[in-house]
Design a protein that fits this description.
This protein is mainly beta and 119 residues long. It has one helix and eleven strands; from the N terminus they run βββαββββββββ.
């Protein structure tokens, strides 16, 4: 069983920034594409961003506001979220997958971390 551990969620005001972190086992981190999803109440899980082989991809809903980054020495991936809006309120999930997350569901998921943005 692969364990992805997220941290960094919380309650913030609209316009604030927040950084999410995800730690992964080394054997997964070095091989898999790492990414972030979110799920708001009553909505399907949504792809946000992924990082693979030096390339990054973003959904249109967060492009320009969110930034994904990896620190290989720490087997960690981060999601820097700026200019947060109330509609960003959701549970955020770290994910690891072998295929392009824009089109394929990843193999592994973290437990999720709640982000709440108050207006």
């Amino acid at each position: 069983q692969v364990q992805l551990v997220e941290s960094g969620g919380g309650l913030v005001q609209a316009g604030d920034s927040l950084r999410l972190s995800c730690a992964a086992p080394g054997r997964v981190f070095s091989t898999y594409t790492m990414g972030w999803y979110r799920q708001a109440p009553g909505r399907v899980r949504e792809f946000l961003a992924c990082s693979s082989n030096g390339s990054t991809y973003y959904s249109d809903s967060v492009k320009g506001r969110f930034t994904i980054s990896r620190v290989n020495a720490r087997n960690a991936v981060f999601l820097q979220m700026n200019s947060l809006k109330s509609e960003d309120t959701a549970i955020y999930y770290c994910a690891a997958g072998l295929k392009d997350m824009r089109y394929w569901s990843p193999e592994y998921w973290g437990q999720g971390t709640q982000v709440t943005v108050s207006s």
